[in-house]
Structure prediction request, 224 residues.
Amino acid sequence: MNGVETLPAWAALVVALLLILGGCIILIGTLGLMRLSDFYQRIHGPAITITLGAGCVLIASMIYFTVLQSRLVIHELLISAFVLLTAPVVAMMIMRAAVYRDLRAGKPVWDRFQTKPAPSSKKHGDDKAQGL
Amino acid sequence: MTLLLELAIGFLLVCVVLSMLFCTVRLLIGPSAQDRVLALDTLWMCCMLLALALGIRFGSDIYFDAALIIALLSFVSTIALAKFLMRGEIIE
Prediction:
């Protein structure tokens, strides 16, 4: 099994630090996904996993292959640009689906976004019109 | 320094596998359907990070292509699932 190739000391140090940082951030994000109590809190957890964690790992991979092959290897920028572009779109779609489903099921959704609790009896139709 | 790098990659692999375990727990116990879709999306992302970490571990470029394909499939499948959750159908 061919292991890790020999790198210069500074590159190995930087890559190792980025990998350890990325691992910690990935673990924190998914721990939030598992442990938080509500869906609207839970959706914040994977956001740091797929932006900061994936960013750290991608930068480490770029530095590693650039030093290893003695030329500029930046094709990881494709993945990072794609992930950074699609992560807000995916989060927005899941969020819209969740709000739509909660409104359709009759759960109070908009109360949590307001500082004062709204009178829910007569405002319900307006809230549903705002949500769609 | 090679030992440090190997330890760091081992730590990253352990972290990513633990993250996949957490996502699987949320996927199994998730009370609503949107929780399961969110956990599945995070599981795709952890799978992409696992491919990248294996690419660094074995020093190979092939894993990069796998990671790119996984990222593309993740986007498409999560959008399809979210559309299905919202409307009950995907193509209207």
About this structure: Chain B touches chain A through 53 residues (CB under 8 Å). The radius of gyration of chain B is 16 Å. Helices of chain B lie at 2-29, 33-58, 62-87. The CA atoms of residues 30 and 70 of chain B lie 23 Å apart.
